[in-house]
Amino acid sequence: MDEFGPRVLDRTGEIDRAELARRVFADPADLARLEAVTHPLVREAAEARIAATRSDLVAYEAIRLIESGAAARCDEVWVVTATRAARVARLAVSRGMSPEDAKRRISAQPEDAFYRENATVVIENDGTPDALRCIVAREVARLRGSL
What is d(CA 78, CA 37) in angstroms, rounded to the nearest whole number? Predict the structure, then answer.
């Protein structure tokens, strides 16, 4: 990864994602540099997949969807939110992060109010995975009914 040098590579030459994350979530300038490299590639890949689909319904899940301007191409923008405590706990379990690293990652994001203001649908996700699946299924059914 030329942008960040050998410090973010493991001993096999692969990107050490944990080290890269520690670095970029500690420094907003580094995070902006990483996003400048990755977001155009992600957007290009997503647009190619969308263009190739035959489905009448496409979900475009993307970090910084709103901030990047990609939300303007969407008919609806769904925001999934949870309490800070729930997010910290989930990052610790799913990604093996320390609470400090999880909080640093969350702090690098805009406040919930930003997402709520830019959302068509806000999904509160403080419950179980099954509860979240039910909410999403209901919203998909609503969309399918309006197509």
Answer: 25
CATH no., domain 58-147: 3.40.50.300
Closest CA to 126 of 89, 77, 76, 96: 89
Q: Where are the domains of the chain?
A: 1-54, 58-147
What does pTM read for this prediction?
Answer: 0.79
DSSP 3-state of 79: strand
Contacts of 68 (CB under 8 A, 6+ apart): 39, 43, 62
Kindly indicate the confidence band of residue 125, based on its pLDDT and cuts at 50, 70 and 90: very high
Q: Answer whether residue 100 shows pLDDT above 60.
A: yes
Secondary structure (3-state) at 12? coil
Tell me if residue 50 falls in helix, strand or coil: helix
